[in-house]
Amino acid sequence: MPERKLSDFAHFYATDLVKELKRLEVVRKAVLGRVIVLFVVIGGISAVAVAVDVVWRVSGWFIMLAAALCFGAGSFIYRYLISDYVFQFKISVISKIVSFLDPSLQYEPRGSIEQWKFVSSRIFEHNPDRLRGDDHVTGKIGATQVEFSELHAERKEETYSSRGRRRRWHTIFKGLFFIADFNKKFYGKTVVLPDTAEKLFGQAGSFLQSLNKARGDLIKLEDPEFEKLFVVYGDDQVESRYVLSTSLMERIVAFRKKTGRPVYLSFVGSQVFVAVPYRKGLFEPAVFSRLTDFKAVEGCFDDLQLALGIVDDLNLNTRIWSRAPSETQG
């Protein structure tokens, strides 16, 4: 897939996308009006709660409960108010950007990677109790089958006290999750994680990493730059070193620098999994700023280009893999 330049996208924006964006700008303004009314109502309720507390000096729990109810109800209503607008944007704009990048790809705005695939990556130690996602893209880039979507994986924590049961949700991962065919059957797993322990604790970090036996064996590699950025665990020292060739390690380092974000990878079965965390929601339309500005869609183009570029960044279309040393034995 030839990489599309920003100048190509700017031309596509001017000749095709801007028509849809102008139509959706009318929708956005109507949605924004309703959102402002919502904020005014919530602000009014909050002010009344504070006044009640000041005048009648009720328990501080009253303010906390009122704030929690306002926040929860406000978040739910806000998502409801913008839901149709967001869907229209994805159908009318994001689907066109995906086709612009590669017409053979399939895009499903409300689809996502299934939970079992997320778990089978073995990247994260906790299995999610709740997983949500959208913006599912599938297809082939060259000879490589790919799929990716935005995912938000969470685990549940329940605690008990004299006040009863309390439930909290903790994010395991939120961001872009990518799966591709690696054209090679792995017998064990190889997991590549951001190296935080060595950054924090220096040489002692390597010792701490080696104690994490649940991950498998700590794999030490010969690339100093790679070792500064990543820590690797695997079930088989020979296979992990075979998979993480010098050229692949260089490409992973370059991809990490390109994203400017922590990057997680794993090689399991015959697939490579890549997880790139994002704090923001991906492929979402502007609500509080003009939708017709080029910047409003440039970010969506960049994020999609990043995902689709993983195939070239990791050189997945070059079918260099024959058989691992362990496959030639016996």
Descriptive report:
The relative contact order is 0.14. This protein has a 9-stranded antiparallel beta sheet with strand order 1-2-3-4-9-8-5-7-6. Helix 1 runs antiparallel to helix 2 and helix 2 packs across helix 9. Mean pLDDT is 86; it is low at 197-212 and 322-330. It has helices at 6-56, 60-101, 115-120, 197-201, 203-210, 224-229, 237-243, 246-259, 295-313; strands spanning 106-108, 130-141, 144-161, 164-181, 190-194, 217-219, 230-234, 264-268, 271-277. It has 330 residues and is of the alpha+beta class. 48% of the residues lie in helices and 23% in strands. The protein has one domain (6-185, 269-327).
Domain count: the total is 1
- Unreliable stretches (pLDDT < 50, length at least 5) are 197-212, 322-330
The structural class is: alpha+beta
- Total helices: the number is 9
Proportion of beta-strand residues: 15-25%
Physical arrangement of strands within the biggest beta sheet = 1-2-3-4-9-8-5-7-6
Helix content: 40-55%
Largest sheet: 9 strands, antiparallel
Strand segment tally: 9
Summed over residues and divided by their number, the pLDDT gives a mean of: 86
